[in-house]
Amino acid sequence: MDVYNVTADAETFTCNAYLTLGERPVLVDAGAMDGVVEAIRNRTRDLDAVVLTHQHGDHVAQLDAVLDEFDVELYAYADHDRRSVELADGDQVMIGDEAFDVVYTPGHADDHVSLVSEKTLFSGDVVVHDDGAFDYGSFGRTDMAGQSRERLIESIRELLDRMPESVDQMYAGHGGPFEGDVRDVVETALERAEKREPKYPDE
């Protein structure tokens, strides 16, 4: 399965939007970058679905543009006026060449899900490899309205419980991709979150 960050060249704030190519071309999150449709078109003429990890603005600002261009199904946990498939914890979704389990992981967002296969983790914002706050294991911010550090900690623990040992690729909503011992990165993020210290002390 080939995975491309189609918002990698963004000059404004956005999440990473991942185009996965294989048996089933799927976009994981739409991002907030103008020109994301063109970036997708540069890689493929076909798209089968968009799957959202959650609906924060940096993940969905370009969603309508993508849906209008490709006329594909939208998979989302929370209600959305263009949602065609409602995601639930324990569902399975085919992305690229791999079958992914949906793991409900709230805390950073009430509608947050992570997607985990035998080899790959799309972690959204619940856990990232590096994001400017921490390298090698960071976690989604929980200092804004509607967010909860306690729920995030529970979500990371749940993710670890349900993530196969064989996972060696991680694609997060921010920062760079990671290849290697994904479990160790997630465990490091959990340890940092459990300290309950502010992620951004100056904010």
From TrEMBL:
Residues 14-174 form the Metallo-beta-lactamase domain. PANTHER family: HYDROXYACYLGLUTATHIONE HYDROLASE GLOC. This is Glyoxylase, beta-lactamase superfamily II. The keyword Metal-binding applies. Keywords: Hydrolase, Metal-binding, Zinc. CDD domains: metallo-hydrolase-like_MBL-fold. It comes from the Archaea. GO terms for molecular function: hydrolase activity; metal ion binding. It holds the Pfam family Lactamase_B. Its cofactor is Zn(2+). InterPro entries: MBL_Glyoxalase_II, Metallo-B-lactamas, RibonucZ/Hydroxyglut_hydro.
